[in-house]
Specification:
Layout: E1 2-9, E2 12-14, H1 17-24, E3 32-35, E4 42-51, E5 56-63, E6 70-72, H2 75-81, E7 86-88, E8 101-103, E9 108-110, E10 115-118, E11 121-125, H3 126-132, E12 139-144, E13 150-160, E14 165-169, H4 170-176, E15 182-187
Parallel strand pairs: 1-14, 6-10, 7-10, 11-13
Antiparallel strand pairs: 1-15, 2-6, 3-4, 4-5, 4-8, 8-9, 11-14, 12-13, 12-15
Amino acid sequence: MKKVKAEISARHLHISRAHLDKLFGKNYELKPIKELSQPGEFAAEERIEVIGEKGKFMMRIVGPVRKQTQVELALTDARNLGVKPVFRVSGDLKGTPGGLTLKGPKGSLKLTTGVIIAKRHLHISREDAKKWNIKNNQKVTAIVKGPRAMEIREITARVGNYTTRIHLDTDEANAAGLLACSIIDLDI
């Protein structure tokens, strides 16, 4: 077993250049407030209102700007908003539903695609993947110990220029009784 840090990925969105311009104004630049564990990723100061059929809430933008806008929710968030997203690996947006309205200080827009529940995944550096004999898109299992002990299966390995971390959404982390940046066992 290998020890891996598990991070809790709360609801957030990645935004395209065109959507950022529409919501915040032409050529607007995101303002980083906190670097995230993955190289080049940051939590932006900017938050937008996300409006669904049944509810709404404010959501943080994660930068940098992406090719496509993607809203990542936990299942509880989706139910509260009244949308039915699909489970997908982050970035795989083909055929995903929309149904949410995004409202910023300069405008709003209705998404026709890009609303997902991100599949649990392991960002793994090329070096660690080679040492541990893990291939890109391989499924791995994590073991959580403690009062809410459980196996978390079907974690998709994403090999690349990453810091090795497992990302779980808030529903998954709460079910396992995990706190931010808990260390868990990877069963490989």
